[in-house]
Structures are given as C-alpha cells and as structure tokens.
Amino acid sequence: MQIGLEGASPSSTPARTFDMTEGKHQTSGAQVGGRTSPAIAPERAGLVQPTQALVLGRGASLARRPAPQQPGSRGLGRKRRDFLHGPGAGYTPTVVNALGRRSRLLRRCVQFGAFVASVFPAVASAADNEAPIQRPSRPAGTAVAVAQPAPTPEPAPALAATPAFTSSPAPTSAQAPAPRASATPTQPAGAVLHTTHESPKKKERLPHRGFVLDARIGAAGCLRSLCTETHRASPGLRLDGFVGGNIRGWVDLGISGGWGNYSASVETNANVLRLYGIEPAQLQLAANTMGNPLGFNPFALQVQSARLSTARVGPALRVHLIPRGRGIAYVGAGLGYSTFLADYDTAVGDVSLRFHGIDVPLQAGAGVQISEHLAAIVQFDYTFTNYPIARFQHPQQDLTLPVAFLDSAASASSGTAVSDSLPRSWGVGMGLRARF
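User: That's the sequence. What structure does it adopt?
Assistant: Structure tokens below.
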C-alpha cells in the first residue's frame, strides 16, 4: 500500500510515495517548468506545503493491524519487543508508519500509550474483584479469621472499542495478561482478617470475705485430775463448726460450737462420790446441815461403767493473718456456754452428774484454698472452763447444787476441791471451709 502527498501548488505534482509494506520513501521525480527533474526530496524542492493532505491509495485504510515485526524493532530485546509489539500493541494507526524511520521515537510512544489503554481496564477490573485484606495494625495480638459471605463480583467493564476505518474485520483482541502474583500471602475470598489485642489480665488473689461455714471432725481429750486420775479418760471423737461472716478478709465473726466424748475406765464397784473426793457420810451430813436431807442412800452408788462427754456453744472472733490468697491462717477466741456430763451405771440404775458453766476457747487454724469458695482447714482448740452449778440425777431424787457446796464437802473429806478437778478440754480437727 502506498500513500501519496499532494502539495497545494497546482503547477507542481510530487511523485513521492511511501511504501507501507517496506517502510521506504520512493520519489520518481517532479514536473518543474515542463521538464522532469531528478528525484529529489519534496521538502528540498519546496513542493510540500505546511498544509498537506493524506492521499491514500486504493484499498488503503487507517485500521489497526497486528504488527509482530514492526519496523524499528531491530536491536530490541525479546521481552521489550513483545511489550511494544505484542498482544494489544496493534492499535498504532497507519499514519504513524508514514513518518518513516525518522519518527521512531514518536511511533514507540504511541504504541506504548495504546498498549496501556488496552491493558489497564482489565487489570483494574481484576484488582476490584479481589477480596480486601485488613492487615493487623500491631505485630502483637491474636488473629481471628471470620468467614463472611463472598461479595458478588461485578462484571468487568467492557473495553472501549477502537473506531476502525476499514471494511475488513478487526483482528481478535488478545486476552488481558493476568495480574502479577504478589509476594504477600492473601486470604481466601470472603474472609476478613480481624485482630484483637488483649492486655494481660492480672491474676486476682482469692478473696476470703463473705459468708463462712466451717465443719470439722477430729479428736478431743480432757485434762486435770478428774480425767487423768479417777476416770483415766482417753481421747475420743469431736465434732465442731463455725457459722458467720468474714469482714474484708481480716475478721471472722460468728458462732462456734462443738461436741466431744471420752472413753473412761473407772475402778469397778467404786462409789460415785469418792471419784470426786467426797465421802458419802460427809455429803449426807452437809445436806442435813443445810436443811435439805438426801432422798437416796449415798452408800449404794457402786459404779459398773462410766461415760464422759462435753459440749459447748457461743460467739467467736477470729483474726486472719492472710486476708486473701491461697493460704489461710487465723487465731481466735470466744466466750460461751459449756457443759460436762458424766454418766454412770450403778446397782440402783443410771446416775449422772452434769456440770454447767462458761468457757473461753482459744483457737488457731490454717488451711489452703482449694477453689474460690472452698478451702481445707485444720484447727486446734483449747478451752478454759468454769462450772459453778452441778445437777445430780438419781432414780430416786434430782438435786441442783452449787459446786461450792461440793467443794466444802470434798475439802472436809479429802482436803481437795471439786472445782479444781473438773476437766478442761482440748481438740484438734480438720475439715472444710465454705465461703459464699
């Protein structure tokens, strides 16, 4: 295909054509003054005016065409040549080729612009369909992938059709190149990366405050001469407990109580009164002196067996040395009602002596928290007692006597005092402490 250039002067007819297939200028000559001059460049002959018209030969067109081997691609690397003249580079108008080798730079710029115009819409469409990724703002934290329904991809915008100036069919456009794989790993479509940063939570020490309930089981024993000499008592079972509240982890205030028994071994056929240092005749004389004679025979109280027990109840106060945490340690004291009971099997029936008084228990305990509301504890008690009243129960008569009356009879009989021989108890037990 050839393109001819026609000047504005009617008297001059340029015979210069451009071979589109070979990319060369051919000038056969010009008619000047009726003579044919040698072939010279139209520019030098002054035949080409600034305003020129493109005269296309027959069958010529300005349609784009694929140019796998464009002029001027010699010396370029394979990748660069494919980049300039590969798929999508056929948008160069034919008029660019008419400028020849002297306009190589302009031709390449136009080809590059056409390439970018054809590829960029496809790349932008593919980038719009990618799932967004929210990257963590801090390196520390826990990443949790929450699956969400994948958004419906929007259809890629159609490439703008390039106007064709030819009757021949346009060549099939090449597929848009796939986007370059990113070095950063991406999440699957529909997954959004969320990050949570949790500050380290300080571990709180276990509290001791609240409503408190203790229950313990252990052993109990008694001291002083009544237990160790006349009755030869040995330790027995003890049950005790505490119910109350703890104030700010420092103080327990409530009610404590307990019960315990001892096994006794008395001399067979020994008189009950003599076990307390009282002669039967001396007790009978003292009762007659008071004007309240005995209604039973005090000489017929021979013992076959004996049983000893004690019980107490009263308010208690305990001070904690460790207000919170796993460990428990406390000391305490109280004041309450206490009773000591001695039951005897005799020839005339069951005879008992019950002493009533007050006590002052001293306590010390320790333990460990198993959980927030439960602890295992061990407690030791020692109880000071004072019994001012005694009740004598016989099948024939019940007497309530002051212990001072028995002290006078014992002092006259053996030079001892009943009040000094009455027991003081101790106990040790382990159990559970519940806090609510």
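The helical segments are 42-45, 78-85, 94-97, 104-128, 225-230, 280-289, 403-414, 418-421.
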